[in-house]
Specification:
heterotrimer, A alpha+beta, B alpha/beta, C alpha/beta, B: alpha/beta, Dimethylsulfoxide Reductase, domain 2, Barwin-like endoglucanases, 3 domains, six-stranded mixed barrel, 18 helices, 18% strand, C: alpha/beta, Glutaredoxin, Rossmann fold, 5 domains, five-stranded mixed beta sheet, four-stranded mixed beta sheet, globular
Chain lengths: 348, 527, 631
């Protein structure tokens, strides 16, 4: 344990953690654009700077470890001015289309500019003017909105380990690029969208089938319905439709997803969905009510059971249904129909 | 999996065999690659040079159907060079002498020939695996979908026991389950011989237990497996079939045979979210709710029971599967009414020892890994800690056997199937996602460039593939990741479906079909 | 092979004989060795420093040898050595005995030198260096003002030994320090000497070398690394290059000593690819050291192994920053890391690592052989030893000088550097490269060391000194350095990437006459923010040229924004060209004006249309009577 003083109050915190981690635990909010606790500290956005007594320059809280006796100021004038300057510089080189930007409401640059009262980018001069990369079917990359926090590149490298993107050029001309800046479609990108998930601004945004604003949606945490990893996801719901998916933190995927889990949701509200029971009459399906359907099934069960016995029944339960459903299915076959002829495609 | 997904990151050596992990379990693939960054070593054995092969310290491009030979060969090196964990073998296993006896015939020369790999690479792989402190084996259908599938799994278990990698963190024997709840479907008794929790239907005390709790008389004879059902149906012995959320008309081997079987059934009920290829054959189709429209739990490949939650109302008249079943069951005389899936889980945990401590309250924030016998149990991160389930690990010495169908002059190519990143199983869901279809629009066959040249087949050209069971037209994808005498196809597509060609021959124990090896011929179609 | 100290001494003894004549230079004219033992009668020493090398030192040597052959002079030796320092007057050669100093020697001058000086002992006066003639007397090189006040430690062998000869390095006590460390000292003792000597890093920040080594020594690890930072990037600085090219073994020996002290067996020299000559000479030196057993396994028969590899930088200035340098060696994009761990704890590939710059390392062997007290007897208490400076800009003796710490700026610029040429007035000296500041005349008597330069708003840096005269606009100088920084910013952190660019844009506006008084406030606040919140030293010091010029020359900034005037007459866009009544109406200006904005009849005074004028200055150049003025 270490004793530190933050904003004139004394705290006991675990030694070995960073000032940012300590502040997060203590409920002191510190802005940051480039930090992600799953990634190595990067210290590039400089928004999380704090004043540490005895240090000449401001220190980034994301990359400065707590020491016993440390005295930290997180919101004094000097710190706030530095943050304002960073936001002003970023905003001065950023499009001013917040009204129509897909990220509005969920944009950290917007949030922090609001919090720190940076109403406009006051520096006039050169601005980014890049081509928008629209070549991936699931997401769009607009380099003009990129603030070069490097999260996308680092997630692709450190966590996803695909290394489809990197930083190209340098200085003011730095840009997130695929090899030779040929665009996402030509790269080894696997469309996992893990870069999109960490982008704090509107540079990487999912392509939407349904338009929605962040404040219009509800998030429902659930488990992905594809492979057996069981990734935790959040369904984005607008009205009665699932309009998107975001990865959830925690085990087992900790904020990562693959292309299917992240972007393969549009089957849910697809027009091909079965919406009523269908009974085949003379080789053609006809819509029926549930009661008609149930009656027909029950009739057939008793009819066939009577004539051929329980062993003439077979049921395929499902590796895609819930535990509860599988349980009921086998219970129905075993206890009510009277056969163990229950299996599913575990072997396929 | 005996061990947990997150443990992969701290593994010292990863042995991937018969699993294209980065495509089929992409998140597990990222854990593996992250482990490599931390210094772990990687062994990959696969008939195709999959993505992970590029990261491997040793890549063994084995012939399809030679898994057991390779594993025995590696064990031969490990035993010869005395690299095995003698203490562990001594105190925790049985039958080592039999294993040793059988393994001694699997010399490097023999194994290298069967597998078609370099002797040096076998030695290297054996050393990496044996010398690592914590080594995990990760496998999937490349191991199991053979007539020797059960034996292959035993071989993996032998290797793992030999080096003391069972009951250890970041090690273990780790089958990667392909579907979201294949683990749960098995756990819940979706198997012909098992009540929930793998309690055998033919054991009298078990039968009695369930009869008491369910208050119904229960059959005690093991039922039919899927392939057996299809065979019986074709013979006219199955009159009524109820298929919930499955699509055998794409997923099962020898589709001509499946189609005949399903058509022969008197009354076929199919319950699904789409009118699948299978549903087309049904007498009645029930509209089910998707996973976004209902509550429940899935159990993932690391035995973690996790919640799914209702986000929207079911579309149209669709109902959740549990609700349909509940309503039908009551009509069949079941006098219990469930208030919801949580209620069903409460019943599950009373009959299923492994789920004894699992309730919706406890898994609200994070899932629990079974076994979790009671409410105070935290769940089990990795199995066989201290001692294996049966007391001592049993070596089951097994020999290599040729696949059921081998190539000949008429069908000169080994045909093998698998999955790709952009689609899931029979595409009933992913086939309805535009972007995924854009990236992977149609069925194809991977063919080595030398073979392609020989047949004058160019990339993107239509070709005909024929086996003893059927014939399909698909598109050639010329590549160098596959051997000259091997052809690979993803099985997802109904159009040009790989499973018209596959063999229905089963593994005797697990009744799994040999989807990974069939003999085929290829023809250029011409324009 | 394995080398012993006896073998080392044998080489030394043998080789010294061939070097006697030249050593007169090292000993300031006192030749301690009996000349009777010397085989050669004369020695021609040619400067092979960067400047002289590119103006043909190798060809000069060849020509000398041919001519000497032709004249059948059997007792004359010719050799090329590292930089003599006085680059302004190159190609330089010296002839011993006597230390006659010839400058700007061209290939066609060689015959005359051989015929006169070598054959007949006649000095070729027309080729003598300007400084070698004082009050009509010819002075030997070591009495030339440029050299008199210098004291050489880092450059001790430069300009004397043949850089390709490991034997000549050994002859001048080379590898004796390594032998002493390995066979007579413990690791702690080596570190102790370094700590006591208080040798401070010559790369810029001045961190005590011994303390750094001690930290790396204390961390236990299966692998440790020694890195020589030879990514010299400050515009105009070339002391590291000169050492690498002129005395490569001094760096290798020091790295091995450091390796022994901290427990490392692997060194890397990170050198920029733009130094191909240095790279080549380093490669040769490493090869020869390995052949002799001075690098490799079991050096001097001890358990100690040490190998050195070269890593080439691709020319990014920021890769001179330690953490960016390590990223680059690891094969990543050269960007600084956050300073969450010290490099001596977790550096290259996460292992304890020492990064020392070339000049620092070159100081190490003499400290080991002569002791900490010896170093502390030179320089100041706070900064013992010497420092090499690269003099450039508006100064007579452009070149490389090494002086004791504490020497004043005035001594360096006027006594050694020869002052400002062309009768112009001194205005300021810019020290420390793009991270440094401009120091005005009032501080010329400041003794130069780490602390004193910091106090007056500049830094020691790697030792660049650019002298400015009264025709240099200070706003434009700031703009020049910012332009460099903007170009070299890696782009990782916001203040440096975005902030320096905006600062440059403001300075550009000001030098174009489009600045406002508010811009000055903006520059000040932005400078502060960039200094206070940038990630690495490059960004933290990027504002220094602006801050120091605004502090000492604010009136120049104000003139630009308030009066739209450049007091130094340097900012082209603020000037206006006029034709005075001196005009004779020759029409030359009108005929040559690219903008066709000069009108007037033949033999009548011409007029410039200032609206149309593009201020290219052509009219001024072509006017035969000096009638065109700018103001």
């Amino acid at each position: 344990m270490a004793e530190i003083t933050i904003n004139a109050k004394k705290y006991q915190v675990n030694s070995g953690i960073t000032i940012l981690e300590a502040c997060n635990r203590l409920g002191i909010s510190i802005p940051t654009l480039c930090h992600d606790d799953r990634l190595e500290p990067y210290a590039a956005c400089r928004l999380c700077v704090v004043e540490v007594k005895g240090k000449k320059n401001l220190q980034t809280s994301c990359s400065t470890k707590i020491r016993d006796g440390m005295v930290v100021e997180t919101h004094n004038k000097r710190v706030i001015n530095a943050r304002k300057e960073v936001l002003d510089l970023l905003f001065s080189n950023h499009p001013e289309d917040c009204l129509t930007c897909e990220k509005a409401g969920g944009c950290k640059l917007q949030d922090y500019c609001y919090e720190y009262g940076v109403e406009e980018g006051t520096y006039v001069g050169e601005k980014k003017d890049y081509h928008i990369d629209d070549s991936n079917p699931f997401y769009t990359y607009d380099p003009n909105k990129c603030i070069l926090c490097g999260k996308c590149v680092r997630v692709c490298d450190e966590l996803q380990c695909t290394n489809a993107i990197g930083l190209g050029n340098r200085g003011f001309d730095s840009k997130v690029v695929t090899p030779f800046d040929l665009g996402l479609a030509t790269s080894n990108c696997v469309s996992c969208g893990n870069c999109v998930a960490v982008c704090p601004v509107g540079a990487l945004t999912p392509k939407k089938k349904e338009k929605y604003r962040t404040w219009e949606i509800r998030k429902v945490k659930t488990t992905c319905s594809y492979c057996g990893v069981g990734c935790q996801i959040e369904l984005l719901v607008k009205g009665d439709k699932v309009v998107g998916v975001e990865p959830a933190r925690g085990t087992p995927n900790d904020g990562l997803l693959c292309v299917k889990g992240r972007f393969g949701y549009s089957f849910i509200n697809h027009s091909d969905r079965l919406k009523a029971p269908l009974i085949k009459r003379n080789g053609e399906f006809e819509e029926a009510t549930w009661e008609e359907a149930y009656d027909l099934i029950i009739d057939k069960i008793s009819e066939i059971k009577e004539e051929y016995g329980s062993e003439s029944f077979a049921g395929l339960t499902s590796a895609r249904c819930t535990n509860e459903e599988n349980y009921l299915f086998q219970k129905m076959f075993r206890a009510l129909i009277g056969t163990n002829n229950v299996d599913h495609c575990a072997r396929l | 999996m005996t061990n947990s997904i997150e443990e992969i990151i701290n593994t010292d050596a990863i042995f991937v065999i018969g699993s294209n992990t980065t495509e089929n379990h992409p998140i597990i693939g990222t854990y593996m690659k992250r482990a490599l960054k931390r210094g772990a070593k990687l062994i990959v054995a696969d008939p195709r040079r999959i993505e992970l092969a590029d990261y491997a310290d040793v890549f063994l491009q084995i012939k399809p159907g030679s898994n057991i030979a390779l594993l025995n060969g590696m064990m031969n090196v490990i035993i010869e060079d005395e690299l095995y964990d003698k203490n562990y073998v001594q105190s925790n296993t049985e039958n080592f002498e039999q294993l040793k006896d059988l393994i001694k015939d699997y010399t490097l020369d023999v194994v290298a020939k069967i597998c078609g790999v370099d002797k040096e690479d076998i030695i290297k792989a054996a050393r990496i695996y044996a010398e690592a402190d914590k080594a995990g084996i990760y496998y999937a259908m490349g191991i199991t979908q053979h007539t020797t599938g059960t034996h292959s799994v035993m071989s993996i278990s032998n290797l793992s026991l030999l080096c003391g990698n069972v009951g250890k963190e970041s090690a273990g024997v780790n089958p990667l389950r392909g579907q979201n709840n294949v683990q749960g479907a098995c756990d819940m008794g979706g198997l012909p011989a098992d009540f929930p929790g793998y309690q055998k239907v033919f054991k009298p005390e078990i039968q009695k237990k369930f009869e008491t709790i369910w208050e119904e008389k229960l059959p005690n004879k093991a039922g039919l497996t899927v392939p057996e059902m299809m065979n019986e149906a074709e013979k006219g012995n199955i009159k009524f079939m109820y298929i919930m959320g499955e699509n055998p008309m794409v997923s099962d081997p020898d589709l001509n045979h499946v189609k005949k079987a399903l058509t022969d059934i008197d009354f076929l009920v199919v319950q699904d979210i789409f009118l699948t290829e299978t549903a087309e054959l049904a007498d009645i189709v029930l509209p089910a709710a998707s996973f976004a429209e209902k509550d429940g739990t899935f159990t993932n490949t690391e035995r973690r029971v996790q919640r799914i939650r209702k986000a929207i109302e079911p579309v149209g008249e669709a109902k959740a599967d549990w609700q349909i079943l509940d309503e039908l069951m009551r009509k069949l005389g079941h006098d219990k009414e469930y208030s919801g899936p949580g209620d069903i889980m409460d019943e599950i945990r009373t009959v299923t020892p492994q789920y004894g401590g699992i309730t919706y309250d406890r898994i609200e924030e994070e899932g629990i890994q079974w076994p979790c016998p009671d409410m105070s149990h935290p769940g089990t991160k990795y199995l066989h800690k201290g001692t294996v389930a049966r007391g001592k690990g049993l070596f089951m010495a097994v020999d290599h056997r040729d696949s059921a169908e081998v190539v000949d002059s008429e069908y000169p190519f080994v045909f093998t199937t698998g999955r790709i990143l952009y689609h899931y199983h029979t595409r009933s869901m992913t086939g309805r996602v535009e972007g995924l279809n854009e990236l992977a629009p149609e069925s194809y066959v991977e063919i080595n460039e030398v073979t392609a040249n020989k047949f004058d087949i160019s990339n993107g050209e239509k070709v005909r593939l024929t086996s003893r069971r059927g014939s399909i037209v698909t598109t050639a994808k010329v590549t160098d990741i596959i051997d000259e005498d091997v052809l690979f196809m993803p099985f997802h597509y109904a159009e040009g479906a790989a499973n018209y060609l596959t063999n229905t021959k089963l593994d005797e124990t697990a009744k799994i079909p040999e989807l990974k090896v069939a003999a085929v011929r290829i023809e250029k179609l011409g324009s | 092979m394995m080398i012993t100290i006896e073998m080392l001494n044998e080489i030394k003894k043998k080789t010294l004989k061939t070097m006697t004549l030249r050593l007169e230079k090292k000993n300031n004219g006192i030749s301690s060795i009996n000349k009777e033992n010397v085989s050669d009668k004369k020695h021609v020493l040619i400067c092979g420093g960067p400047g002289c090398h590119s103006s043909g030192a190798d060809e000069l040597k060849k020509r000398f040898e041919q001519k000497i052959d032709k004249e059948e002079l059997t007792d004359v030796n010719v050799s090329i050595a590292g930089c003599f320092g006085l680059c302004e007057s190159g190609p330089n050669i010296e002839i011993y005995p006597g230390g006659t100093f010839y400058s700007q020697v061209k290939i066609d001058d060689v015959d005359e030198i051989v015929e006169k000086h070598l054959c007949r002992d006649e000095v070729v006066e027309r080729l003598l260096n300007e400084g070698a003639i004082k009050e009509e007397n010819i002075k030997p090189v070591f009495e030339v003002d440029f050299y008199k006040k210098q004291e050489k430690i880092a450059l001790r062998n430069c300009g004397i030994i043949d850089y390709n000869s490991i034997d000549e390095y050994i002859a001048l006590d080379g590898y004796q320090a390594l032998a002493k460390a390995l066979t007579e000292m413990t690791q702690e003792e080596v570190i102790d000497i370094m700590k006591k000597s208080n040798l401070r890093g010559r790369g810029g920040a001045g961190f005590p070398t011994g303390r750094k080594w001690e930290t790396a020594f204390k961390y236990e690890a299966d692998k440790k690394y020694v890195i020589c930072n030879a990514d010299e990037g400050d515009p105009g600085a070339f002391m590291d290059r000169s050492i690498l090219e002129g005395d490569p073994h001094s760096v290798l020996e020091a790295m091995a000593i450091c390796g022994y002290a901290i427990g490392s067996d692997q060194g890397y020299i990170y050198v920029r690819a733009e130094y191909p000559v240095a790279v080549q000479r380093l490669k040769t030196a490493i090869k020869k050291a390995k052949e002799k057993g001075l690098l490799g396994e079991n050096i001097f028969g001890t358990e100690f192994n040490f190998n050195i590899e070269i890593r080439l930088g691709a020319g990014a200035f920021v890769c001179g920053e330690g953490t960016a340098l390590m990223e680059s060696i690891e094969g990543k994009r050269g960007m600084p890391r956050p300073k969450i761990n010290r490099t001596a704890h977790k550096g290259l590939w996460g292992k304890p690592t020492i990064i020392n710059n070339v000049e620092t390392l070159a100081n190490v062997p003499p400290i080991i052989t002569k002791g900490a007290k010896w170093l502390k007897s030179i320089g100041t208490e706070d900064s013992p030893g010497t420092k090499v400076f690269a003099l450039g800009g508006k100064i007579k003796n452009t070149g490389l000088v090494e002086v004791p710490m504490g020497t004043t700026l005035r001594e360096i610029i006027f006594d050694i550097g020869g002052g400002i040429p062309n009768g112009k007035k001194f205005k300021a000296v810019q020290t420390g490269g793009p991270s440094g500041g401009c120091i005005p005349e009032e501080f010329l008597d400041t003794p130069v060391d780490f602390a004193s330069l910091g106090k007056i708003g500049s830094i020691m840096g790697s030792g660049g000194m650019i002298v400015l005269d009264d025709t240099d606009c200070m706003v434009d100088i700031a703009r020049f350095f910012l332009d460099f920084t903007v170009d070299e910013s890696c782009g990782k952190c916001v203040p440096c990437r975005e902030g320096t660019k905006r600062m440059l844009e403001i300075l550009e506006r000001i030098t174009k006459g489009k600045g406002t008084p508010e811009d000055l406030d903006r520059l000040e606040s932005l400078s502060e923010a960039i200094t206070d919140s940038s990630l690495c030293g490059l960004g933290q010091t990027a504002s220094n040229p602006v801050k120091s010029t605004m502090k000492y020359f604010r009136h120049e900034y104000e003139a630009h924004v308030k009066e739209i005037r450049c007091p130094a007459g340097s900012c082209q866009e603020l000037l206006q060209f006029f034709i005075t009544d001196k005009c004779v109406g020759c029409t030359k200006c009108a005929n040559n004006c690219p903008a066709s904005c000069i009108s007037g009849n033949l033999k009548e005074r011409h007029v410039i249309d200032t609206e149309q004028c593009i201020k290219c200055g052509t009219c001024m150049e072509v006017c035969p009577v000096g009638a065109v003025i700018k103001k």
